[in-house]
Amino acid sequence: MKIGVIGTGTMGSLIIEALIKSKSVKPSHIWMTNRTEEKARNLANAYPGLTVCPTPHEVIKHAAIVFLCIKPLQFFPLLQSVQNTWRPDQLAVSITSPITLTQLEKMISCSVTRVVPSIVNQALAGSTLVTFGTSMNDRQKTKIWTLLENFSHPVEISEKNIRVASDLSSCGPAFLSFLLEKMIEGAVRSTPISEDDATELVTQMVIGFGKLLEDQTFTLTELREKVTVKGGVTGVGLNVLKTGYGGVFEHLFEETRKKFIEDHQAVDPFFDQGDLPEESR
Questions:
Q1: With 60 as the cut, is the pLDDT of residue 98 above it?
Q2: Beta bridge partners of 155
Q3: Domain membership flag for residue 250
Q4: The domain containing residue 132 runs over which residues?
């Protein structure tokens, strides 16, 4: 299977590395390009066999499945520049949520789908969020689903839930990392424990926590209840968390939703009116 990747930033590189680590695709079957060529060259040096192309046209020319791993405001000028390059038998894959599949289907003359990856896919774990385009047939759906299964747990998500699903799956590792860092900082500031020791303990705890969930030993609620002994220390700590919670995650999802709407407001006019962003003229 020949894969193309346009944009080798964090997410583009993640997809390439996950495909190679999972042995889904040989490096020699991957074509890629990036506005800053050096980033693509560095990736090619790390994985011999990868082909760096000078333009998106070259990537599309060689690949059967093309991952579009660029920022929302870069989509319209890119798609306009390659509008006559696509072949009917190809599959275009967007990894960004603010661009709707309807908008993509207006400008891409082949089947389209959305796949939102997560950084944990680098460990051949975690979810990828999938929204199928209207013109995809069963063969194409099976093809992309099987590819994603090699390094993730694909989950089909509707357009209306793509933002919150992305918050949980793709942004979630950053949110949890922040909370765990604060847990470590609190321990270091309040007790004699060193930062190194606290970090090691929390890291190993999270690894074991993940394995319990992976093995379905406990649900989240069951795990919390197992650890919480009546009248014990854990209960005291949980009471502190409950008192200080203050609906922080409700506020988080409200704010990410606002940013999602702002991104749409910035992108939609180009697709609706057919005008290029001023910076790309």
A1: yes
A2: 129
A3: no
A4: 3-157
